[in-house]
Design a protein that fits this description.
mainly alpha; 3 domains; two-stranded antiparallel sheet; 13 helices; 2 strands
Length: 268
């Protein structure tokens, strides 16, 4: 029944939504190239994330209880998963065009925002929303926004879409950029690694610079180098290096300051 309804909606919404047609150049530069669904996805993602974080921060301050069903805490990640699943099924079954595709983008963006806002819960398998581990949800959200934004701009992965070089040179550049992005990811610099997939040679910055102390690269290559290990901790551990403090401040600004860790229970 859901698929039948979606099919009818898809047929009735074959025209483009052209939501911001009143903006100069919107129809020509956004709608015509088919970028509107991605733009609407990104906007729905950002609006949902902002409203969700705003509500949770107010609820935290005022001591409001969490939503529950029959006494079970209903995380908004569950709602997001359901929205993403239904949206994905409809897209695969029908792949609508025009307004239907735009609506798919909007609902997928809403669901994705609700899921990524509680990404840390799925990572640690416990409610760490307001704990220091919950910062990973903000990191995942920022990466999602970056990824959607880069697709919206239309940047080609590794920047080789319009290359005029020979096949051998193009393959060499592609392999080199993949290696740089992989090293950047292994060094624990996830956002820089993601952006380096779309911007050639940016991964060279992440590949050359110091790895984060808990990254796979540090575990493999800093094992026998105490100086590099200490240098990495001094730069990246919370509250030490300026870039770590800046990252901590930005994360607190977006997601809210984590609650202090609870003291361990006393024995006996």
């Amino acid at each position: 029944m859901i698929l039948a309804s979606a099919s009818n909606i898809a047929r009735l919404t074959a025209d483009d939504l052209d939501a911001f047609h009143f903006l100069p150049g919107y129809s020509r530069h956004i709608v015509a190239p088919g970028k509107e669904p991605v733009l609407l996805l990104l906007l729905a993602f950002l609006i949902t994330f902002i409203l969700t974080r705003l509500y949770t921060r107010i609820a935290r301050l005022r001591g409001w209880g969490s939503g529950s069903v029959h006494g079970v805490h209903l995380h908004h990640m569950v709602v997001g998963i359901l929205i993403v699943l239904v949206t994905g099924i409809v897209a695969v079954a029908e792949w609508p065009t025009g307004v239907g595709r735009s609506l798919i983008g909007i609902f997928f963006g809403i669901g994705a925002a609700l899921v990524l806002d509680e990404f840390a819960l799925s990572l640690y398998l416990k409610d760490v929303y307001w704990s220091p581990e919950g910062r990973s949800s903000v990191d995942a959200t920022i990466m999602g926004v970056l990824f959607a934004g880069l697709l919206m701009v239309g940047v080609s992965p590794f920047g080789l879409e319009h290359t005029r070089e020979s096949r051998t040179v193009a393959f060499g550049l592609l392999a080199f950029n993949i290696v740089l992005a992989a090293i950047t990811f292994l060094k624990g610099k996830l956002m820089l690694g993601l952006v380096s997939i779309f911007i050639p040679f940016l991964g060279l910055v992440g590949a050359i610079r110091l790895a984060k102390p808990h990254s796979a690269w540090a575990k493999w290559f800093y094992k026998h180098s105490p100086r590099k290990r200490e240098h990495s901790r001094a730069r990246f551990e919370p509250g030490t290096g300026w870039n770590a403090r800046l990252n901590e401040w930005v994360t607190d600004l977006i997601g809210g300051k984590p609650s202090p860790a609870s003291p361990p229970p006393r024995e006996g």
